[in-house]
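Standup, Tuesday
Yesterday: got the pipeline producing structure tokens again.
Today: sanity-check two examples.
Blockers: none.

Example 1:
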Amino acid sequence: MEKLQITLNINGKDQALLVQPNDTLLEVLRDELDLTGSKESCSEGICGSCTIQMDGKPVRSCLTLAMEAQGTKIKTVEGLANGDELSNLQQSFIDHGAVQCGICTPGMLMSADALLSETLNPDDTTIRQALSGNICRCTGYSKIVEAVAHAGKPEKSCPDCQTKE
């Protein structure tokens, strides 16, 4: 099969690539660009560990062809941090113990980031709905919901947090 030239905008930077027509976005991110934060777990779009954002919306990168992503703005978990400085959401996951084995974490972060970019101070029901397509095999949902809620309310104190606000 002949490779085709595409350009993807990933984390604010254009990337020119040669891809097979059937290459998934997840394969290109991980294998061609060494952006390994998004995880391949089920390869069927069920678990959510491969979730990235396209134009601000959570998308399963294992089901999305790389060619379909041309002309969109792609954000991966690597795009959340500002250099070495973690985003408020990433820090909240750490502070609340919302990271266990780590397989679901990138997808959870990307779904939560999309939610928080549209909804300030989401309630637990809204958070759980936004994360409903992401499976945590360690069953750490309560801590994940707490972390997202806290990140959505950074002005409030957090007695359980390790960092000072």
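Example 2:
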Amino acid sequence: MLVVTDLVTEFSSVKALDGITFKAKAGLITTVIGANGAGKSTLLRTISGLEKPTSGSVKWFDHELTGKSVEAIVRGGIAQVPEGHAVISQLSVAENIELGGLFRKRSHKGDLVRAKREVFELFPILFERRDQQAGSLSGGERQMLAISRALVSRPKLLLLDEPSLGLAPLIAAQIINIINELCRSTGLTVLLVEQNANTALAVADHGILLSLGKVVANLPADELIADSSLRAAYLGY
């Protein structure tokens, strides 16, 4: 279980996260929704160690994450897929995927081969494109590649930042559905940040609604999507 307690992250004395507290249960999808500037991406970056919190605690089961390096957090079973389909354009598809398991190359070489095979089965188009430069891929294919790179590290917790951003609706739905199926079939824990609340809540078990760095709702996903007053006040529909 991921446990976030009284988390504060500041930039030049501005609180991007202002006392965030919630739990994300293991083996389920928890989605974090909210308008632009709500603090969603900062939350993921703080959990993964890319941003240092001013105060508060982030625990993955009994392991404290705050203060640890990004590498230590990844080695502990937590992987982030950043916003914007981030891949290394000059490297091939296969080389990008291998980067995700680089730290496991010596100790888990056989499993790394299996992990690569599994992500190619998950996203067959990437197998077809495996020798192409990543920069030649479409936006949807780059997003698939970014997710695949994270998955070969064998994470127990996957942090997904706006996976549908900039994608055609059909491609976005395909990627979200694959993540949903992966979670249900393997027990992977997913923390999903999305601006498209309907897309996220449709597959999530639980929802966290942020506004200006604060938690304004912490509810089962079906209750959150049914609350018209919350949607109108914080999501604009």
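Quick observation on example 2: Residues 209 and 217 are 5 Å apart (CA to CA). Strands lie at 2-11, 14-24, 29-33, 55-60, 63-64, 78-81, 157-161, 189-194, 206-211, 214-220.
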